[in-house]
Automatic annotation (TrEMBL):
The gene is pyrB. GO terms for cellular component: cytosol. InterPro entries: Asp/Orn_carbamoyltranf_P-bd, Asp/Orn_carbamoylTrfase, Asp/Orn_carbamoylTrfase_sf, Asp_carbamoyltransf, Asp_carbamoyltransf_Asp/Orn-bd. This is Aspartate carbamoyltransferase. Carbamoyl phosphate binds at residues 58-59, 108, 136, 139, 264-265. Residues 157-302 form the Aspartate/ornithine carbamoyltransferase Asp/Orn-binding domain. Transmembrane segments: none annotated. It comes from the Bacteria. GO terms for biological process: 'de novo' pyrimidine nucleobase biosynthetic process; 'de novo' UMP biosynthetic process; amino acid metabolic process. Pathway: Pyrimidine metabolism; UMP biosynthesis via de novo pathway; (S)-dihydroorotate from bicarbonate: step 2/3. Belongs to the aspartate/ornithine carbamoyltransferase superfamily. ATCase family. Its EC number is 2.1.3.2. Heterododecamer (2C3:3R2) of six catalytic PyrB chains organized as two trimers (C3), and six regulatory PyrI chains organized as three dimers (R2). L-aspartate binds at residues 86, 169, 223.
Length: 319
């Protein structure tokens, strides 16, 4: 299996063959998750700690379910009541965790780079469940798996990512992954939410939905991240939906078989019309949730294999 990483901190370090490996392993876990007996012993005897410094429903429950289905001992740390709130530094938290000897550490943090800092201080595999506006690698991987299953391939597709690009770690991770897999990516949204520097990723930028969605294979909508906005990025939600919310008229500019995606949680009537979100012929939003569990199982399985190999090598050196 071509996967050489010690941690999963972002899409940026991954090679295309490693991305393909994660998706191929995830395919097997999709099949497992649809069986009556959904359990594997890939992580049997290992300890997984979930540390979410930001609230999350989908991602945390998905990682928890993934770990339990793989046979890990899973612990969720209540970070809202943790020692960090009492003034403990992130480094001291890492040292405390080290003393517990975890094997897998899943971290979501509001500050970019915090997960990478933790990874430098602990003796286990670390998975980034979202850090600030930086990256959200497992979301991009599950989106990739969803696209590959719907379209039969993950290369040379026209893909539009629409909405709040500026505040979105999902957009950044997807831009990197889709670029590595030779896709043509367009960013669509108001200039206040789609900074021109994103052209550095090799994508095209549009501020008109009709132009941006013309003949695309995939329409990926993003949530308006109002909690990260500190100014007037949009005039009003009503005006935003009129110009940038996905409805039937705007979707008509995409290819007839284009799929519609959204990482959730959705603001219906703001980013996307409810009828489109629920259209079983176009929307793959529920499939994204299903793929999320399988991708996280695959990522933890692959990291656990590498961790085991590294520990065995270290033990051999000590002998």
């Amino acid at each position: 299996m071509a996967f050489r990483q010690k941690h999963l901190l972002g899409i940026e370090p991954l090679h295309p063959d490693e991305i393909t490996t994660v998706l191929d392993v995830a395919e097997r876990y999709v099949d497992l998750n649809r069986q009556a007996n959904k359990h594997s012993d890939a992580l049997k005897g290992l300890t997984q700690i979930n540390m979410f410094f930001e609230n999350s429903t989908r991602t945390q429950s998905s990682f928890e379910l993934a770990g339990k289905r793989l046979g890990a001992d899973v612990m969720n740390m209540a970070m809202q009541a943790s020692s960090i709130k009492k003034g403990e530094t992130l480094i001291d938290t890492a040292l405390t965790l080290n003393a517990m000897h975890p094997d897998l550490l899943v971290v979501r943090h509001p500050h970019s780079g915090a997960v990478d800092l933790l990874a430098q201080k602990v003796n286990c595999a670390v998975l980034n469940a979202g850090d600030g506006k930086h990256e959200h690698p497992t979301q991009a991987l599950l989106d990739a798996l969803t696209i590959r299953r719907a379209k039969g391939r993950l290369h040379r597709l026209n893909i539009a990512i629409c909405g709040d690009i500026a505040h979105s770690r999902v957009a950044r991770s997807n831009l990197m992954l889709l670029g590595k897999m030779e896709n043509r990516v367009r960013l669509v949204g108001p200039p206040t939410l789609v900074p021109q520097q994103f052209k550095e990723f090799g994508c095209e930028i549009y501020d008109d939905m009709a132009e941006g969605l013309k003949d695309v294979d995939v329409v990926m909508m993003l949530r308006l991240q109002k909690e990260r906005m500190d100014g007037g990025f949009i005039p009003s939600e009503r005006e935003y939906f009129y110009r940038y919310g996905l409805d039937a008229d705007k979707l008509a500019h995409a290819k007839p078989d284009a799929i519609v995606m959204h990482p959730g949680p959705m603001n219906r009537g703001v980013e996307i019309d409810g009828t489109i979100a629920d259209d079983i012929n176009r929307s793959v939003i529920q499939e994204q949730v299903e793929m999320g569990v399988a991708v996280r199982m695959a990522a933890m399985d692959l990291l656990a294999r590498n961790l085991k190999s590294a520990r065995e090598a270290d033990a051999g050196v000590m002998v």
